[in-house]
Write a structure and sequence with these properties.
This protein is an alpha+beta fold. It has 3 domains: 127 residues, D-Maltodextrin-Binding Protein, domain 2 (3-Layer(aba) Sandwich), CATH 3.40.190; 132 residues, Dipeptide-binding Protein, domain 1 (Alpha-Beta Complex), CATH 3.90.76; 221 residues, Dipeptide-binding Protein, Domain 3 (Dipeptide-binding Protein, domain 3). It is 31% helix and 20% strand. It is globular and about 65 Å long.
């Protein structure tokens, strides 16, 4: 990861392309006042809570740290979880066949060894892997979990990630029973996997939470309550969740039954605060109530003023506007989407709206860090770009009206989460679309959990979205807009796109795979499937007595598993 951590395209004060900034796209005075009022109320509430807690952010004697989660985890059922917050928590309290070490390498987890072959893999489970109730983790727990993920009744949005397993897609489509899935528990400690096609990166896939084990008897005993509260989930990871006050706090304690417990120094990770408000989190950090917080454009200036040590990290994630391609939505018009391409300046978003170091202008769904055949993918397959051309955009707008059979484009609904950063970006987009394209935008601000629900149901015209890598292979971005991928929330469908994904999936030859990915990048641009906004670089603060926190592109980020408190 270190080779791209500090890349910055230009200083944040550099002039945007074209030499000027359109002031009409700035947030309105009303919308800014509304956001500031909400921030003040949120801040007052959290500071009141902080005053009631005398505990500090770190405790050396107890090896305890306190953090703030940005959102309430929407779903801690690993077979169905899709969001970053839930996966962050699950990655600390559960473990799969393999895991990531401090350097981001794949190392043994529940499986102490494995053998990869072109037609499948064999995993040997360790005998000292236990659930938090003392029962051993068995090969059967993986078989049950994988079958359940693929069961159509589960409706797992991540079912596609198991498609490399033989018959997985047919099972997920209801064409074969779950028992036809190519995974077998030979005995309690031997898991045999058959591949649909050769999958050289399968050892990386099984590090993702959708592949984690679930014990059938416990799952069935909880029914619809499974993973609803701390007591409704079994743990086999470095920590267990001991308390969960919904929308308020969540606590994790060291798992004394974890097989590698001697390598874990922390005894507790207490998420005593849950807030998306970056201003509130900064004040909690300054007041020594939390050990870690991310900064945005405004809090970054405050941190500079107070001469706090600011760290930076490139997350590997790409953020974009995703269109709804369903037949009843105006955004189904290709001319409309192309008009937006020619009116949008990604440099302006990075330099003037985000205004923090480390972000890169959004050019492609495929970020710059991805490997290609022998170098970086984007070097070998340059991303096509649209010329910033308002006249062409207006011509395309006229074509869009004809395509849709309308005299004018109706107001478009832009769905975003309720974080200050998301709202700020939405208001910028609102002003830009109005001033450059004459399109009215209605901003639909929702809580994190509700935004996910609306995305899934298709209740939007455009949604502020992002995608971070699930595993270390270009396919983690490539298959996102395949027709069978339920994370394709706008329901884009293109047979040629699907065909190129299949080519990449069915080959282990790097050149064939990357040629297919190059075609996917071209199709995404020509069909204006999404509007790339930026590749995310974050700046953050970390407590000076905290060591060993791992920042990585894949897996939990940040990962506190191997952290420790020093004097």
């Amino acid at each position: 990861m270190d080779n791209y951590l500090s890349m910055v395209k230009r200083p944040i004060w550099a002039t945007a392309r074209g030499g000027s900034f359109d002031c009409s796209v700035l947030p309105t005075r009303f919308s800014m006042r509304r956001t500031m009022t909400a921030t003040a109320l949120s801040l007052a509430t959290l500071l009141s809570s902080a005053a009631a807690l005398a505990d500090d952010a770190v405790d050396f004697g107890k090896q305890l740290i306190r953090i703030a989660l940005t959102q309430e985890p929407p779903l801690l059922n690993g077979m169905k979880a899709t969001d970053q917050v839930s996966i962050l928590v699950l990655s600390h309290v559960t473990e799969g066949l393999v895991r990531y070490d401090r350097r981001g390498r794949i190392v043994p987890g529940v499986a102490e060894s494995w053998d990869m072959r072109p037609d499948g893999a064999t995993f040997k489970l360790r005998s000292d892997a236990y659930w938090s109730d003392g029962k051993p983790v068995r090969a059967q727990d993986f078989v049950f979990a994988w079958r359940n993920v693929l069961d159509p009744a589960t409706a797992s949005e991540y079912a596609f990630i198991l498609y490399p397993v033989k018959n997985a897609e047919a099972v997920n489509r209801g064409q074969q029973p779950t028992t036809a899935l190519g995974v077998t528990a030979v005995d309690d400690t031997t898991l045999e996997v058959e591949f649909e096609t050769p999958t050289g990166y399968f050892d990386k896939l099984v590090a993702f939470v959708t592949y984690f084990p679930v014990r059938e008897d416990f799952y069935r005993s909880r029914g619809d309550r499974y993973a609803a509260d701390a007591g409704d989930l079994l743990y086999n990871g470095p920590f267990t969740m001991t308390n969960w006050v919904h929308s308020a706090s969540l606590r994790m304690e060291k798992n004394t039954r974890y097989w590698d417990r001697d390598a874990i120094t922390l005894n507790g990770i207490h998420a005593d605060y849950i807030t998306a408000d970056t201003r509130a989190r900064l004040n909690l950090f300054i007041d020594d109530k939390i050990v870690h917080t991310r900064l945005n454009g405004e809090t970054y200036k405050d941190a500079l003023t107070q001469r706090l040590r600011i760290r930076r990290f490139t997350t590997g994630s790409v953020f974009f506007l995703e269109y709804n391609h369903r037949s009843d939505r105006p955004t189904r018009s290709l001319s409309l989407r192309r008009a937006i391409q020619h009116a949008y300046d990604p440099d302006e978003m990075v330099d003037k709206v985000l205004a923090t170091p480390g972000n890169l202008p959004g050019i492609s769904l495929f970020p710059v860090w991805l490997d290609g055949v022998s170098g970086k993918f984007r070097d070998e397959y340059p991303a096509p770009t649209a010329e910033l051309n308002y006249a062409k955009a207006r011509t395309l707008m006229d074509a869009a009206k004809k395509e849709l059979g309308l005299s004018s484009i109706p107001p478009l609904v832009l769905l975003v989460s309720d974080s200050p950063t998301a709202i700020k970006q939405a208001e910028y987009i609102q002003g830009l679309f109005k001033s450059r394209l004459g399109i009215d935008i209605k901003i639909d601000v929702q809580t994190f959990k509700q935004r996910l629900a609306k995305m899934t149901s298709g209740d939007f015209d455009i949604v502020g979205a992002g995608w971070g890598p699930d595993f270390d292979d270009v396919m983690t971005f490539g298959d996102l807009f395949a027709s069978w991928n339920l994370n394709n929330r706008g329901r884009y469908e293109n047979p040629e796109y699907d065909r190129q994904v299949r080519i990449a999936q069915n080959s282990t030859v790097p050149k064939i795979r990357m040629d297919a990915m190059g075609e996917l990048q071209r199709i995404l641009f020509e069909d204006a499937v999404v509007l790339p906004q930026y590749e995310q670089g974050v700046i953050y603060l970390q407590h000076h007595k905290l060591r060993g926190v791992v920042r990585r592109v894949t897996g939990a980020d940040p990962d506190f598993t191997y952290a420790r408190v020093i004097r």
